[in-house]
Structures are given as structure tokens and as C-alpha cells.
Amino acid sequence: MINRLLFYLFLLLLPTQLGKHFFLDFSYLSGVRVDYLAPTIYLTDILVLLLAIFNFKTIFKFFKNKKVIIGLFLLLINVLLSRLPVVSFYWFIKIIEFLIIFSLAKKILMTLKEKYILATLLISGLFQLFLSLVQLINKHSVQGLFYYFGERLLSLSAPGVAKASLGGIEFLRPYGTFSHPNSLSGFFLLLYFFVLTYKKFNRYLVLKYLFLLVSSLLIFISFSKIAILSYLFLNGIYYILTIKSTKVVCKPCIIARILIIIVVSFIFLQATTDPLTINKRIELMKNSTAIILRYPIQGVGLGSYLIEQAKYSSKYYLFFNQPVHNIFLLFISETGLIISGLIFLFSFKTISQFIRTNIYIFLTLVLTGLFDHYWLTLQQNFLLMGLVMGVILSRTLPVD
Prior knowledge:
Elements: H1 2-13, E1 19-21, E2 28-29, E3 32-33, E4 40-42, H2 43-54, H3 56-63, H4 66-80, H5 85-111, H6 114-138, E5 163-166, E6 169-172, H7 181-197, H8 205-221, H9 225-244, H10 251-269, H11 277-294, H12 305-309, H13 327-357, H14 359-369, H15 374-377, H16 379-392
Antiparallel strand pairs: 1-4, 2-3, 5-6
Helix pairs in contact: 1-2, 1-6, 3-5, 4-5, 4-13, 5-16, 6-8, 7-8, 7-9, 7-14, 7-16, 9-10, 9-14, 11-13, 13-14
């Protein structure tokens, strides 16, 4: 009973980010406080700890795997060689947390019924949609009770806040309870394709399509161009393959669905966001390349990327406190070519199975990960990635 309740709470609260940040001396760059350099204890961390205690046998079996042990040993070496060992050790613990969620995915599926998993995801999505729409309409955060779910203090006039304009009207891009609209859109983009392609959800079509609608709306109103383009591209592939299937009864219905997705996507893609976003991303990629060349063997250490990047000048105010918007360059910058290469070799079989099992989830992570960093740096996206990957690869996971 307790185990089931903890699983439900984790799924329900996964999009939230209530936590306690510890801003230490190294958490400031040029006098500016940087969240990425502040060790943080989130409410979801506490839930993961409780889940680990109540499912110790399952987790212990998983962590006995030789490849897992070797991978963690390599990362521990990285921590010892880090530019900022305290932060690197914190992220080493976060990777263990990621693996705990990954290892529990099969047990979550065995413990919870698909109907209630869908219902929990839908409730969570509706909460985010309501808050996001209020932020969009009012052009500022709501605060009050929503502060305790992790909503940031936002206003259209605040420096660095994400904005968009459509038809000459400027508005705040909604954050929900996330750190950035891109993080929000990536989170629900991954859940969208998970729910769309997970066949066991087809027994509950009303809940399934309601969730797909809610997550689609959140992707669109985030005005994240990468998320919307990925949504358009992957849906196009999915429904074209569906039309070719001989099992489809109403092919015109599928064609109409594709046309609606195209039209709505292009409406939201017309919005003007940050006109310098491409230039900023290129600058960050140049910095990360320089860092890799400077520390090719050991990297700068897990979570320590910003300490090194702060040495490089930037044309854009306060943009030095942003990690490179590419998860592959970020990981190599922090772990070095040798450790990242060895981890890739150890994971190659798992990655291949992942691609064969669900190419849509894999492409979602790759397409968004090429242009942003939230899968490796932000709590909600990081843990969701572990959960979804664990579900997809659940056949290979041990369970007591």
C-alpha cells in the first residue's frame, strides 16, 4: 500500500520543483547567483529516497550489474579530478538517483494499473496547463499556493524572462512550475510520445487522448520552436506509417489529424521569440568545443561546466551562466573523451535496444537534446528521462 502510494505521488509531483537550494561561495559567477551551481534537495528527491528504502532488493539487484558498477567507478574518478568536486559529487548522487528511478520502472508497471498511471499523468498535465494559461493571460506568475509547487517569480518586465510576440502582442512564455518554457515543452513532448506509442494505454482511449490533447496544448503554448518542430516531424512519421498499416479503418481521419497538426504547429511557429537565440547557441557551442580541447581526457567534472565557461567572454548579458545547449557536448565537456567514450561503449547494447524498442522516444531525446541542456541539468526532465527509458527497457530490468 505504501509502495503504491509513493509511486503515485512520484508520478503526480514529478513536474513540480519544490526544493531547498544551498547557495555556497561557488554558486555565484561574477556576483550573480546561479541555480545550476547550487546543490538542491527537492521534494521528489525525498520521494525517490523513500522508494529506494521500500524497494531495496530491486535496486540492489540492478546495482550489482558489472557495467553499472564500472560506469559509476569511472564517474567517481571524474569527481576526484573535477574543477569543483563538491558540485561534481552532488551530480554523482543525482546520477545514482536517475539509475534508481530507471531500475524501478518495471516495478512501477507491475504495481500500478495503466488506467491509474494515465489518470495521474492527466491530473498532473491539467494542473500545468491551468497554471500555464493563467501565466500566459496575466503575463506574470501567480505565486501564492503555486509557489510551493515550484513556480518561479515571473513578470514580463523581468530581465532574462522568456518572451514571445504574435500579431504585434508581446506576452510571457508560460513556465508552469518549470525553470523555463523549453523545459516544460520537452517534458510533455517526451510524455506525449510515450503515451502515444505505449500500446497498453490503448485500452483506455478516453484518458489517452485527453492526455495527448493536454500535452499538445502545453507544447504549443510554450512557443518552443525545437519542441514544436520535433512534435510536427515525429507525428508526421508516426501517422504516415499508421496510414500505411493495413489495420487502419479510417485513413481519412488520420490524414485530417495530420493536417490539423501541421496547421496548428505553423500558427505557433510564427511567433517571434528571442531573435538572438541561434547566435547565443553557437557561442555556447564554441565555448564547449574549446573546453573539450582544453580538458580532453578528464573533462571539467560533472556539473562544473559553468565554472570553466565563465572564463570566456560573452556578447550577451548574463548568458555566461547558461550551459551549452547540447547534451552531448555538455556531457563530453564535463566527463572528457575517455570516460564518455567508455560509458558509450558499455551502454551501446542498451542504446541499440532502446532505439529498436521505441524510436520515437529516442528521437525526442536526441532532437531536443541537440538544441538544449535540460535533460541533463534540470530535475524534472532528468528524472522523467530515467523513468521513461526504464519503462521502455523494462524487459531487461530485474524485479524481486
